[in-house]
Design a protein that fits this description.
The protein has 439 residues and is an all-alpha fold. The protein has helices at 10-27, 29-34, 36-65, 68-100, 116-124, 129-136, 141-147, 150-167, 172-193, 196-211, 220-244, 249-255, 257-266, 273-283, 287-300, 303-319, 326-339, 349-358, 373-401. α14 crosses α15 (287-300). It is globular and about 65 Å long.
Length: 439
């Protein structure tokens, strides 16, 4: 059987770009560092359209339900699922880091690196319950849109959608307009995604050029522990959940492999948000569930970030020679249950949220975080991929809970989605079916 690569396929392009980025960063490190601008530019392009896409999708999703009780039921089930699964992720991280003890024998006082920008950002970020809840309410909608603040946008979109639902037939012209506007924004995403291999090349060139392959050796034990723990969480925890709800975690991962590769190249789960929404609707989830659960999950269902935070916090304690009792670790778990929920809305989320968490434990020196600077970039890829898969699974689970899962048109493999075409504006599938013609 003759194997032939389809170089027009996005998956092939991204894989080749990542390999070329690794080679370029290794052999030309100085130039590799300068390639960071390519990845940064791509992420900014994606962030440019996330706010309106989330707004239009959530508003239309709620308005099309036509039942406020149904909105509350789906939202309640999603939040309960998020809390249970992310708490399990935090607990698994703490258990593994206690067993492996990757920080034992490391002298944190010898760590070098400038962490002032992270500690200052953490100090400026409010992580108390009152401040967190107030932060969800925007000072004004335009400001929230301009800053791309996902939670305030989500709150306003929910209220707007509920208002349209209460209007009944009078709201139909508005929902029809929003459907066409969402179609236009997904068309923009379609154009942006064509340059994703260039972004993956730039981001990977920077990572290898800046830190080098050799920089992984000194903290390989922590990195290995984080990667293995996240793989365990995906295969065992999420795998068990998917089996209970009648689908396979491995088939699902294979279905969203292009989005995973995109996240691997850019180290940002946000870069795959529009395409993930598209793929989930094609997988069989209703538009309403996808529109409500996915954006909410990007703030409240950060499984990978939860694992990283629990392991990194205890790693710093171990490296600093701080012995934490079981009660102290349970307290740390409680703090992380709160701080991890706001991580997505903070620039450099993992590091800044970790600094804010350690601030609640004066016995652990925040300076020990300098140990993580060299490899944080590599671990960010693992947590972003875990976040992506976790949110995809959560959406399918909630859709099945609500009998809103109809896989009548489910493609057998991800490749079949590459051959789809843009739907006509105004059709039932026009909202989130425009980004798959990328192969």
């Amino acid at each position: 059987m003759r194997f032939k690569l389809n170089f027009r396929n996005l998956t092939v392009q991204v894989v080749i770009a990542i390999i070329l980025g690794i080679l370029f960063g290794h052999y030309f490190p100085a130039y590799g560092e300068q390639m960071k601008v390519l990845g940064d530019a791509f992420i900014k392009l994606i962030k440019m359209v996330i706010a309106p896409i989330v707004f239009f999708t959530v508003v239309n999703g709620i308005a099309n339900m036509g039942d406020m009780k149904k909105v509350g039921r789906i939202g309640g089930k999603a939040l309960l699922y998020f809390e249970i699964v992310t708490t399990a992720a935090l607990a698994i991280g703490l258990i593994v880091v206690n067993l492996v003890k990757p920080g034992a024998g490391i002298d944190a006082s010898a760590a070098s690196g400038d962490i002032s920008k992270y500690t200052e950002a953490a100090a400026e970020s409010s992580h108390g319950i009152k401040d967190f809840l107030l932060g969800i309410i925007p000072d004004n909608v335009v400001s929230a849109m301009a800053k791309g603040e996902l939670l305030p946008i989500l709150l306003f979109a929910i209220l707007f959608g509920l208002s349209l639902t209460a209007m009944g037939e009078k709201a139909r012209p508005v929902t029809a307009l929003f459907d066409k506007l969402a179609y236009a924004f997904f068309g923009i995403v379609n154009m942006i995604m064509k340059v994703s291999p260039i972004a993956a090349f730039g981001a990977m060139s920077y990572t290898i050029g800046k830190f080098g392959v050799g920089s992984l050796l000194s903290l390989g034990k922590l990195m290995g522990s984080v990667y293995i723990t996240m793989a365990f969480f995906i295969i065992v925890v999420l795998g068990t959940i998917t089996r209970v709800y009648g689908f396979s975690i491995f088939k699902f991962i294979r279905y969203i492999k292009e989005e995973i590769l995109l996240v691997l190249g850019t180290s940002s789960s946000e870069s795959a948000l529009p395409r993930l929404m598209d793929k989930l609707e094609k997988y069989g989830c209703s538009k309403s569930v996808v529109g409500l659960v996915v954006p909410t999950g990007y703030s409240f269902n950060l499984d990978g970030t939860s694992i990283y935070l629990s392991m990194a916090a205890l790693f710093v304690a171990q490296a600093s020679g701080v012995e934490m009792t079981l009660w102290q670790q349970l307290t740390l778990l409680g703090v992380l249950m709160l701080t991890s929920k706001g991580a997505a809305g903070v620039t450099g989320s993992g590091f800044i949220t970790l600094a804010a968490t350690l601030a609640a434990f004066p016995s652990i020196p925040v300076a020990g975080m300098a140990l993580l600077l060299g490899v944080d970039r590599f671990m960010s890829e693992a947590r972003a991929i875990t976040n992506l898969i976790g949110n995809g699974v959560a959406t399918v689970v909630v859709a099945k809970m609500e009998n809103e899962f109809h896989p009548d048109k489910e493609p057998e493999t991800a490749e079949t989605a590459d051959n789809s075409v843009l739907p006509a504006a105004g059709t039932a599938g026009s909202l989130v079916k425009t980004t798959t013609n990328l192969g």
